[in-house]
Amino acid sequence: MSNKTRRQADDGAYLWLVLFTLVVVGGLVIALVYGTMALLTAVPILLCGAALIAVPWGVLTLIEKWRNRLE
After folding, report:
1. What is the model's pTM?
2. pLDDT tens digits along 7-63
3. Distances in whole angstroms, Cα of residue 53 to Cα of each of 12, 57, 70
4. Which residue has the higher pLDDT, 70 or 26?
5. Number of folded domains in the chain?
6. What is the pLDDT of residue 4?
7. Which residue from 26, 58, 60, 29 is spatially nearest to 44, judged by alpha carbons?
8. What phi and psi values does residue 35 have, to the nearest 5 degrees?
9. How far apart are CA 36 and CA 29, in angstroms?
10. For residues 33-50, b (16+ Cβ closer than 10 Å) or e, as one string?
11. What is the b/e burial string over 14-25, where b = at least 16 CB atoms within 10 angstroms of the residue's CB?
12. Which residues have CB under 8 Å from 27's CB, separation 6+?
């Protein structure tokens, strides 16, 4: 496996780890501290936060693939 392929795989794994931590672990902490009603309120906000991370990452990944195709 080349360094570039390995880096791309690591980047994807780190992204999923960050999103999992934000949504699942953050949701569990909110549920434990404030209760399930607060969790129902917080889940859409956590998902929006995950989208604010995932969308730019996806756009930059597409730009990188496009740039590599032009080379």
Report:
1. 0.84
2. 889 999 999 999 999 999 999 999 999 999 999 999 999 999 999 999 999 999 999
3. 12, 6, 26
4. 26
5. 1
6. 82
7. 26
8. 105, 175
9. 10
10. eeeeeebeebeeebeeeb
11. ebeeebeebbee
12. 39, 42, 43, 46
Nearest-angstrom CA–CA distance, 54 and 51: 5
Q: Which amino acid appears at position 23 of this protein?
A: V
Question: Torsion-angle region of residue 19: left (phi > 0), alpha (psi -120 to 50) or beta?
Answer: alpha
Fill in the amino acid letter for 11.
D
Three-class DSSP category at 19: helix
pLDDT band at 2 (very low <50, low <70, confident <90, very high): confident
Q: Which domain holds residue 22?
A: 3-70
CA-CA distance, 45 to 34, in Å (whole number)?
A: 15
